[in-house]
């Protein structure tokens, strides 16, 4: 996150760290992407995160990914589901995937605590200009990953504006959503991918976007691009219900 501030424990309780290690190896897991807890046993992330022959796990509850914290819950992933029409081209199309977690205390996987809670799926899209929040452990303006979970406020940008030639032109399709600050300075970045863009309404937070791509990070006229969760509701519900 560029232009962010440190998050307090429990402020973004749906945030997860998606971690990988080469399949079958005895290496430790390392943070690869963010993710979003939708249900006790389901995490939403970006499809481009789920590539290669890896074992996967998710860690949630804590704010520091470099040390073990009391509120951490670490859960193995038992199945990865990448969107059937995910495609990597000039842009990332249908960049969503679901991770099914291992039940620890059947039927529960993640246990709800002060530090771990699910985010809601939106029933309506939010309007352009709405102030929403991004969070993650990705690269910052110091060009290093952050060990502490950071967050930043960004504005939703209309697709009409984001499809203008000075911004992303025809790279943008309707399953994508832009958010940021067109002047630059505040954005998601590498390592935040798969993580949440959430918008609040009446005290409830709704997952509006999944960090997907952008040209660089926090550059003028190059806002972050997010998978537009509203357009994937049927896909998500068909997998998790
Ligand atoms: C990346 O490389 C990446 N500024 C993620 C988000 C953004 C750009 C790049 C958005 O994973």
From TrEMBL:
It comes from the Eukaryota. It is found in: Secreted, Extracellular space. Residues 1-241 form the Peptidase S1 domain. This is trypsin. It comes from Stegastes partitus (bicolor damselfish).
């Amino acid at each position: 996150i560029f232009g962010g501030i440190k998050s307090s424990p429990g402020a973004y309780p749906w945030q997860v760290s998606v971690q990988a290690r080469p399949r079958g190896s005895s290496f430790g897991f390392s943070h690869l992407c963010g993710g979003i807890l939708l249900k006790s046993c389901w995490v939403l992330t970006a499809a481009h995160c789920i590539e290669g022959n890896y074992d996967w796990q998710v860690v949630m509850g804590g704010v520091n990914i470099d040390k073990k914290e009391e509120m951490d819950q670490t859960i193995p992933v038992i199945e990865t589901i990448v969107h059937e029409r995910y495609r990597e081209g000039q842009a990332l199309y249908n960049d969503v995937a679901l991770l099914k977690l291992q039940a620890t205390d059947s039927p529960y996987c993640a246990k709800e605590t002060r530090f771990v809670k699910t985010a809601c799926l939106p029933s309506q899209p939010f309007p352009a200009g709405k102030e929403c929040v991004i969070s993650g452990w990705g690269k910052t303006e110091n060009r290093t990953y952050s060990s502490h979970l950071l967050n930043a406020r960004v504005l939703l940008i209309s697709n009409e504006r984001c499809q203008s030639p000075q911004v992303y032109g025809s790279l943008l399709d309707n399953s994508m959503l832009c958010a940021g600050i067109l002047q630059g300075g505040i954005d998601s970045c590498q390592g935040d991918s798969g993580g949440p863009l959430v918008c609040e309404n009446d005290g409830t937070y709704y997952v509006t976007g999944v960090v997907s791509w952008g040209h660089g990070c926090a550059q003028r006229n190059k806002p972050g691009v997010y998978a537009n969760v509203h357009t994937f509701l049927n896909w998500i519900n068909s997998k998790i219900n």
